[in-house]
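Sequence, please.
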């Protein structure tokens, strides 16, 4: 679940835990990691990263592993942090920002045990499917609604925006099925270099 935890963003906290599971890092290293890759699916300012880091430390999810040159603190994940990350990876995904929920977990899927990956990907597929069904219901209602003539152009652009959301979810569902899952065997595909 992605919720605010004492002033810091729960989703960001889990992304930070994932990065720190890859290797211990300083605040500077984490900011660079966000800038060089994570920002493609999760954008964060240095201040919000620092607040999340402080919250994780307060809750015992991370600790200072050592202090480097010029007082630079290098953080590492505690057992409590590992458990919180595992719970986030394998738990239900909240609807709302489907793309971020899926891509953040997909980015760290290799950290999950092989036996758990299939369940995680199935949850991704279920979230996309549920969101797509909701968008299609909205579209059906939109198409049945009577629109006053003076709002026809506004409604047309609103419908196009809805079409974009539907197309985006259809693409995401097809992409997960073709790039991550093998539909015939329902097994995960190995990573394929592009």
């Amino acid at each position: 679940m992605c919720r605010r935890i004492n002033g810091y963003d729960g989703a960001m906290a889990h992304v930070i835990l994932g990065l720190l599971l890859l290797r211990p890092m300083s605040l500077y290293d984490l900011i660079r990691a966000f800038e060089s890759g994570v920002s493609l699916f999760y954008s964060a300012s240095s201040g919000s990263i620092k607040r999340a880091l402080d919250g994780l430390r307060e809750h015992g999810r991370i600790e200072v592993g050592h202090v480097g040159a010029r007082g630079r603190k290098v953080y590492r994940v505690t057992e409590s942090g590992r458990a919180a990350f595992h719970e986030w990876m394998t738990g239900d995904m909240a609807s709302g920002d489907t793309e971020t929920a899926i891509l953040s977990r997909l980015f760290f899927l290799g950290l999950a045990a092989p036996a758990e990956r299939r369940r995680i990907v199935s949850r991704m597929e279920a979230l996309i499917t549920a969101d797509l069904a909701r968008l299609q219901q909205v579209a059906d209602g939109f198409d049945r609604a009577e629109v006053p003539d003076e709002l026809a152009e506004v409604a047309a652009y609103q419908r196009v925006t809805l079409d974009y959301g539907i197309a985006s979810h259809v693409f995401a569902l097809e992409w997960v099925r073709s790039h991550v899952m093998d539909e015939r065997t329902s097994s995960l595909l190995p990573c394929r270099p592009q």
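Confidence is low (pLDDT under 50) at residues 1-8.
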